[in-house]
Design brief:
Strand order of the largest sheet: 1-2-3-4-5-6-7-8
Number of strands: 10
Largest sheet: 8 strands, parallel, barrel
Distance between the termini: 57 Å
Shape: elongated
Amino acid sequence: MLIDTTLREGAQLFGAYFSVDMREKIANGLLALGVEELEIGWIGQEGLEELIRRLRPVAGQTKLSVWTPCRDVDIRLAAELDVDRINVGVPVSDSHIAARLKTNREGLRERVARTLLIAGLLGIKYLSVGLEDVSRADAPFALSLAQIAEETGAARIRLSDSLGVLTPPETQRLVTAFRNSLSIDLAVHCHNDFGMATGNAISALSAGSDYADVSVLGIGERSGIAATEEVAAYLSIKETTHDYETAHLRPLCHTVAEAAGISVPRTKPIAGKDIFSCESGIHAHALSKSTDLFEPYSPQAIGAERVVAVGGKSGRAAVAQALGHHEIPWQTQEIPALVSAVRKLSWELKRPLSDSEFTELAKRH
């Protein structure tokens, strides 16, 4: 299951400022996608209460959650909000405990236990405890803290690879260790500093994690986290274990890109405009025989379209196929000269030919 945190982690992207109206638009796109939980912001965030008011009537089965640091005053503020879940962040590596929290391991244990007891007294029914920087923490200590959290009322433990240093096998081992020692929900938050986030998130789910954090286009602090569109498409199309409405992914990605002021690379998985575009002669010829030879799923699965063009990399089969597509009569002996002309013009233009350019060139030959 997915916890989409575009409106919390994603909103922390350097230079990104989402208005309440834009946050509502993004949230509605995520609700249409069908994610199980929306982490819609953090305690003290501008416009948070207004956003909750707008989303509450339309959230349906999707849980609304907010993030807060492990402080009594913030827990009390969170308890007053009309949300389903509270996500508490707790740094667990020794460097964070000393430098950020100005305490030690025992002091952190006491703080977590006290905070969870207060949360219970305030009537918070689902409290998620996020173990920040768990990938660099002392493993026995981090696990003992998770067990204390479970014993004092936590409903979920969220393991955060805050600096994105884990690999998929390491992520699986980490999740397995916690899964075998806890009976409550388990989640992961995988950062992408070494490009491992999506792979780590999927590996965590396969190892027994109940949830994985994701963000549209993977946006967030630094290199961001696992990408909503990648994980949702993999789970729905490749594994077929979920039924996310993947046709909503591409429009959602472009909405977020515009709001965040970033561009979507044309080869970006799921979202890129050219991921079903083909010019290479060998691939184009193969696609004419069977599309699944070089496509892992159909373009329609994500609301995209296939584009096969001729250009500097095209061969005889691709040019002949293009002639047939445009219903241009041709003779076998004419193909070599046309292939040469197509390649020459394409290299001059430094791109594949448009339909009109190809048909004009073909008629001249």
